[in-house]
Amino acid sequence: MCADLSERARLLAKGRHYEDFVVGDAFIHHWGRTIFEGDNILFTTLTLHYNPSYFNVVYARQNGHPRLVVAPLLAFNVVFGLSVEDLSEAGGPFLGVDALNFNRFVYVGDTLTASSVVVEKRLSSSRSDFGIVTWHTSGRNQDDEVVVDFKRTNLVRRRP
What we know:
Elements: H1 2-8, E1 26-34, H2 37-46, H3 57-62, H4 72-87, E2 94-102, E3 111-123, E4 130-140, E5 146-157
Antiparallel strand pairs: 1-3, 2-5, 3-4, 4-5
């Protein structure tokens, strides 16, 4: 059975090449992700984010929050991760994030979605087999409010 399956299986290419991106193209990244209390507690513990608003409900409420606040870097990482399949799954060195804005609090139980727009692209002057692409990505909560946005840049492989 395994031999038959491997004979019938076909390898699908993942990700996009430099030529697939056009300035102005928009991507609505699928799924979304609900952030649970365990996600937030684990992230804050592992990354030494010891703001009590992230793990102490009483403290969060005393400071005007309806429930636990999600660590902003966790919200950023979730939104960034949602964009990978559409933008950079094919690989290529990550060049950085610019203009990172945390626009509003994210709370445990919020569901984040992401969308991106190609804002810039050019050929690499030092690596002829790559181009450089920059996207503006926005993360929204379940009420369609922008909670985080940023620009990120990657080297993206050109078609052979």
